[in-house]
Amino acid sequence: QNGWVLLKVDIDSEGNTKNIEVLDFSPSRDFVPNAVNYVDKTKYKKYTGGDRPKEIRGHQLLVKFELRSNA
Q: Do 1 and 51 meet the contact criterion of CB atoms below 8 Å apart?
């Protein structure tokens, strides 16, 4: 089964994700917990706009899942 989850997150000045919000998903909620867990553990490089790190708010991420059979 394949699927995807669209999330909205904030990325703090240290590159950590926070305020994760599920915007949409398909085909069902089955993938939502794994997508949220994946994004929660993701660490980004610091975004420096100017002379110091800045927070990014409302960043949208599409997490895709493709399950393959080993048979």
A: no
